[in-house]
Each structure stands twice: as C-alpha cells, then as structure tokens.
Design a protein that fits this description.
This protein is of the alpha+beta class and about 200 residues long. It contains 5 helices and 6 strands. α2 packs antiparallel against α4. The chain is globular, with a radius of gyration of 16 Å.
Length: about 200
Amino acid sequence: ETGDGAGILIQLPDALLREEAAGLGFELPEPGSYASGLVFLSRDDAERDAQQGIFERAVREEGQRLLGWRAVPTVPDAIGWSAREALPAIRQVFVACGEGTDAAAFDRKLYVIRRRFERAVDERPGAAYVPSLSSRTMVYTGLLMPSQIEAFFPDLVNPATESAIGLVHSRYSTNTLGAWDLAQPFRYMAHNGEINT
C-alpha cells in the first residue's frame, strides 16, 4: 500500500488558492505576481515553527513578501501504513512578488529561496523539503502510489481546482527506499530516471 512516490503537476489553481487565502485572511495579488508551493515540514510543533521561520527569513532576505501558510488537506487513510508513519506536516506557502521584480527575476528568487531553505534545514534535526514553489505550477506529491494521489489530496477534486495540464509522475526506485523527500517532483520537465546514463 506504500509506493515509491507519485504526484501530479498542474497549473497554479488560482481560483482555489484565492478562495483559501480569503479564508485565511489575506488577499492574493494578480496571477503571476504571487507564488505558492507545497512544503514538507517536521511533525514536531517546535521544529516546524523553526523551519517556517527559516523559510520566512529567506523570503524576506530575498526581497519578496510572505503572505501566509495553509495546512494542506490530506486523507492519511488513503495511503499505506508505512507512508502514514513517515507522513510530514504538509503546508502550502504563499509568497508575493517583491516590488520592482519582473516575472523572470521572481522565478529566480523563488529558486534561491527554496535552495536557501533546504540548505539551512539540512543542518537541523527535523526533515523538511520543498516539492513545489512556483508562480506558474503546483506539484501535489508524496510517498504515494499513482492511484492514491486523488484520494490523498482533496484539493485535486475541489471544483475550484482548474488546470489545462496534468503531468502525473510515478517513481519506481531500483536502488533506494522510498521517502517523502524523494517523491520525484517534475518542477520544469519530465525525464527518465536513468537520464544520467
């Protein structure tokens, strides 16, 4: 019941995100002027708070604006027991484009924010990972089998979730055990796992 990792890449579901942001008490800028992404964080409250603080500091230091966080709805009973045992806290982050930052520069800033966060949390005890952070796409992924994606993430069956694309990925590991941070997101391209050969 536990796969090596699977997920789906879709266009940023703007209508859904606006609805959710309004419920959380903030407003999203125009499409293209904000980014959102999934972040896997520690299940320990204190460590998760520290990890979120590190992310927020990276956003500020890169001249962008953090709008808020959302707990991503999930259905743990839809996945295998070993995936549930290792299930991280799954959060969605919202970042507004900094003043005077064009679209290409914003994309670069998001990359830098993600890498700064990942490097900083590598030195901490709790696992953390950013499968997706973009102004254009969203990746819903995890230690899942392809047949579990839709059941695990209720966002994907919400009528407000719209996308002209849907790229499903599935990881079949031959040399490592599956893990939440190895769920193989396709951030910009799909590729064969043996591309390096």
